[in-house]
Amino acid sequence: MTDRVLAIDGGNSKTAVLLVDADGQVLAQVRGPGASPQNVGLARSLEVFDGLVREAARQAGLSPDEPIARHTAAYLAGADLPREELELQAEIERHGWSGTSVVGNDTFALLRAGTTDGIGVAVVCGAGINCVAVAADGRTHRFPALGRISGDWGGGGHIGSEALWLAVRAEDGRGTPTALLPAVIAHFGTATAADAVERIHFGEAEADEHELCRVLFEVAATGDRVALDVVDRLVEEVIVLAEVSLGRLDLLEEPVDVVLGGGVLTGTGDIVVGAVRDRLSATAPMARIRVVDLPPVVGAALLGLDAIGGGPGAELRLRSAYAEQPAEQALDLASGG
């Protein structure tokens, strides 16, 4: 059979599956709901993945009895520790989609999507925040990325909860006056922040931290000092993650790519990216800041092509084809198949 790579990007909010041949030609692309094992459990994660994979095979015109791919490259949110990667890989292999498979954290796919060789540092800030680094000699550095218990600060959910916290304290006198207060009240459509808190407490409203994160950045753009302090804290966290990773791999004085991705970093203009670029130059003067303009599933597919010996032509073809067919055009399986 023609060599094929099955790529899976399993995020907290959505899952993307891409099937490509060894020449980098896109055979199928499918999207579905988020299926992080930490959020929905291992069994449900594999149920979602399997439904999307089978749909991709159907799109590609493959027979149900035909092997889907030579290799599966699955890069998943929730694969934060080696133990989790091994458990997920065993489950994926049990489904028999391909002859070989690799499971890793989805931040590695972001790194590959933003570089030509998968070497450098990637910091992602979407639902959560994470950072990985890979040196040219194969050494890696990563963080557990398990939330507050592993020392993390940031991510859309965290920043959104900060927006609500700061608004409530501004209203009741414990905090600093801020434009976040009327913005949060308007978001919930209540008379006061206290009313919003009461509705959330009784299950009559969703906290919706990710939308509140957007609200915070909108308020910060008006110059509100309280909101800007949160943005500055995020900038510092991104820089610390990158600096520590670069330092652990002895790359602070080397020309190296620092890839930024995730909705919080890429969807808020230059307020974070520009500040990171300016401040990181003091400790890593040769670092090149890159913002990923391709979905991480492309990085997963590129890592899969690397694994089966795909060449530069395959990479170029895949990048070009995916740029011509953005993810929004892929089949959206909201039910997960």
Automatic annotation (TrEMBL):
Coiled-coil region list: none
Domain ATPase BadF/BadG/BcrA/BcrD type: 8-304
Keyword Metal-binding in annotation: no
Keywords from the UniProt entry: Kinase, Transferase
TM regions (residue ranges): none
InterPro entries from the UniProt entry: ATPase_BadF (IPR002731), ATPase_NBD (IPR043129), Euk-type_GlcNAc_Kinase (IPR052519)
Example GO molecular function: kinase activity
Gene3D superfamilies linked to this entry: 3.30.420.40
Record Pfam families: BcrAD_BadFG (PF01869)
PANTHER family, alphabetized: N-ACETYL-D-GLUCOSAMINE KINASE
Name of protein: N-acetylglucosamine kinase-like BadF-type ATPase
Organism: Umezawaea tangerina
Biological classification of the source: Bacteria, Bacillati, Actinomycetota, Actinomycetes, Pseudonocardiales
